[in-house]
Amino acid sequence: MSKLRLAIVGAGPAGIYAADILLKAERQFEVSIDLFEQLPAPYGLVRYGVAPDHPRIKGIVNALRDVLDAGNIRLFGNVTYGRDITLDDLKKHYNAVIFSTGAIRDAPLPIPGINLPGSHGAADFVSWYDGHPDVPREWALDSKEVAVIGNGNVALDVARMLAKHADDLLPTEIPANVYDGLTASPVTDVHVFGRRGPMQVKFTPLELREFGDLNDVDMILYEEDFDYDEASQAAVKSNKQIMVLDRIFTKWRGHDTGTASRRLHLHFYAGPVEILGTDRVEGFRYERTTPDGEGGVVGTGEFREIAVQSVYHAVGYFGSPLDGVPFDDHRGVIPNREGQVIDDNDEPVHGVYATGWIKRGPVGLIGHTKSDAMETIKNVMIDQANWWSPEQPEEQAIVDLLTDRGIDYTNLQGWQLLDAHEIALGEAQVRARIKLVDRGEMLAASQVSDGN
Ligand SMILES: Cc1cc2nc3c(=O)[nH]c(=O)nc-3n(C[C@H](O)[C@H](O)[C@H](O)COP(=O)(O)OP(=O)(O)OC[C@H]3O[C@@H](n4cnc5c(N)ncnc54)[C@H](O)[C@@H]3O)c2cc1C
Ligand SMILES: NC(=O)c1ccc[n+]([C@@H]2O[C@H](COP(=O)([O-])OP(=O)(O)OC[C@H]3O[C@@H](n4cnc5c(N)ncnc54)[C@H](OP(=O)(O)O)[C@@H]3O)[C@@H](O)[C@H]2O)c1
């Protein structure tokens, strides 16, 4: 029986599901899987993207943990592909590689003023409040009025985290510096701007409904946005999700407001034009839009300005290129056919596969990365005749290479120690866990040992 030595780069849900599916698949060969992750902790955006006040979703790590704890995948944490290991290294040690490196950057929003101090990408703010070790610890929450651009679930996460009182986040796993930062925030008004109408949003009812449950925060809607065109009226009748969104909006439209110390405003038909200010953000300029009858909008030529001291743009995420691997600069993904990576001439790059957000783009829920992984694994297996023939397939060889290079890699046992340490820190304060944020502290708690 032949053996597949497989490297998976990226220990987010896509990479872990791919490993699990391959291990459980009916196959004619043995499998040995090494999972490389640039951080000392696995789980990708489940740990560093999902909002801390969504413990049910964070709970998906329990299923991912079971896969790792089953003991037949080796984890190499704190190892960055492109810096610590290269494609040539992988070809020398494995038959194939699956890239599952996700997307961590903000998609660009090219409008004047976007680089002013006080203008932020949502991805950076999310990384800060979720305690990602590679972003600064300090975040200037110094604005009373804030704009959030975008109408996806990330925009709602960001708006909710900005509007929520810090004490209401205390039971969650937010790091201590995040609690301190949010406690000091003087925010009174968070304005969310969507360029299309309330029936064309990308966010989902469950996430919208949460706004109504926020303590001491009033929801403010504007009647001019709710004069539905024919397409919107038809959508309310035919699409259950849109029907529920409409019901939530309708409830809030009838509400009395004015008692809370913070307000969350939803503005629709507002296309971003410019972030105003000289030395820092002073305002946001947008153009009123109107439906084009086909689900899109056109500008009306009416421009409006609002005074804000910070702007967050949440207009989607974007993947990053990987050394030696084809990349589509326009879509921010690795070009592929159902997970089989292809080159500029549409020819398969044998031995190289992709899954998750880096394969498909930054859209979809954690569950979608499972069906993604199934498709990719099917194609890894179909391509068996074209896998690489490594010079050093022995499991110890890659360990020796990392050690020779002086790479401070962690392993599964190290992650289990770090995990237990964070949970113990949380227990002392009756919290789910307290995340370590500093990479050095994470490594120390992982007590790196030789061999996996
Ligand atoms: C802010 C935010 C909130 C979200 N909330 C939810 C939610 O509540 N519910 C839900 O279902 N979905 C949510 N999602 C979507 C969900 O997070 C994604 O569907 C999922 O995480 C994508 O999985 P992935 O494995 O492809 O990528 P990721 O989760 O990004 O994992 C990629 C992994 O690869 C690693 N990596 C990257 N580059 C390298 C490299 N060069 N070398 C080694 N390792 C590398 C990264 O560190 C990371 O661990 C959210 C997304 C965002 C952005
Ligand atoms: N709780 C959850 O389940 C949760 C939480 C967070 C994220 N996620 C998932 O993660 C994925 C990514 O979420 P996301 O919010 O980053 O992306 P998204 O769902 O694609 O939303 C992006 C938003 O940005 C807007 N936008 C894009 N370009 C713009 C521009 N130039 N000017 C103004 N607005 C612009 C889009 O408007 P248009 O629609 O007009 O293009 C859209 O409203 C989604 O699948 C999401 O559901 C889920």
Automatic annotation (TrEMBL):
Keywords: FAD, Flavoprotein, NADP, Oxidoreductase. InterPro entries: FAD/NAD-bd_sf, FAD/NAD-binding_dom, Ferredox_Rdtase, Ferredox_Rdtase_adrenod. It comes from the Bacteria. It catalyses: 2 reduced [2Fe-2S]-[ferredoxin] + NADP(+) + H(+) = 2 oxidized [2Fe-2S]-[ferredoxin] + NADPH. The keyword NADP applies. It is an enzyme of class 1 (oxidoreductase). Its cofactor is FAD. This is ferredoxin--NADP(+) reductase. It comes from Rhodoglobus vestalii. The lineage of its organism: Bacteria, Bacillati, Actinomycetota, Actinomycetes, Micrococcales.
